[in-house]
Amino acid sequence: MKKESQVIFERNVVEFVTVAAEFCRYLEEAEGVRRADFVDTVLKLLPLLYLKAEMLPECEQMGDTAPENYVTEETYEIMRLNLSDILSDRDDYLDVFVSDMKYSDQPVTRYISEDLADIYQDVKDFVFVFRLGLNETMHDALAICQENFRLYWGQKLVNTLRALHEVKYASGTDKEEEDDF
């Protein structure tokens, strides 16, 4: 068995694929879900996704070109809009972990829906390639997903987790929002 085959079938990789696929499936089927139910579920999925990404074995891309992306701009935008509809007026939050923040006197506003769509895009592209079942391509997709986790979506995930925690547990919620939970 080749080296890339050994890595992509390790227990931690298989568990990451499982959690990643569940995360993507949930977001894809979330349209029309009550905000409270959505927040509860995502607050459970995100830490698990982060943990499983942290446990991935180190690997490097073998091929010269990256595997094709599955998530198109249209798919991304539909996902973002669906999530924005669910989160409604609780979608935005102030991000303090932005390098531009140190040069600005204005807070940087982010959107949970956009962050979740960004995470979805990287993770769904990975899951799609993994389902194709081509060992070298799967290995490269794993290496790219792992690198993107370190550089991009890992930080977005923890920022979004903080924002979702605020949505669920904010002490200043009004009676109508409390009925959602």
Structure description:
This protein has 181 residues and is mainly alpha-helical. The protein has one domain: Up-down Bundle (Four Helix Bundle (Hemerythrin (Met), subunit A)). The chain has 7 helices and 2 strands, in the order H-H-H-H-E-E-H-H-H. A two-stranded antiparallel sheet has the order 1-2. Helix 2 (11-28) runs antiparallel to helix 3, helix 2 crosses helix 5 (112-132) and helix 3 crosses helix 6. It starts with a helix and ends with a helix. 32% of the residues are buried. The mean pLDDT is 89.
Topology readout:
Elements: H1 3-8, H2 11-28, H3 35-54, H4 73-87, E1 92-95, E2 108-111, H5 112-132, H6 135-169, H7 175-180
Antiparallel strand pairs: 1-2
Helix pairs in contact: 2-3, 2-5, 3-6, 4-5, 5-6
- Element-level helix/strand string: HHHHEEHHH
Count of individual beta strands? 2
Whole-Å distance between the termini? 51 Å
CATH superfamily: Protein of unknown function DUF5063
- Unreliable stretches covering 5 or more consecutive residues: none
Work out the strand percent: under 5%
Provide the helix percentage: 55-70%
Largest sheet: 2 strands, antiparallel
CATH topology: Four Helix Bundle (Hemerythrin (Met), subunit A)
Going by CATH, the architecture would be Up-down Bundle
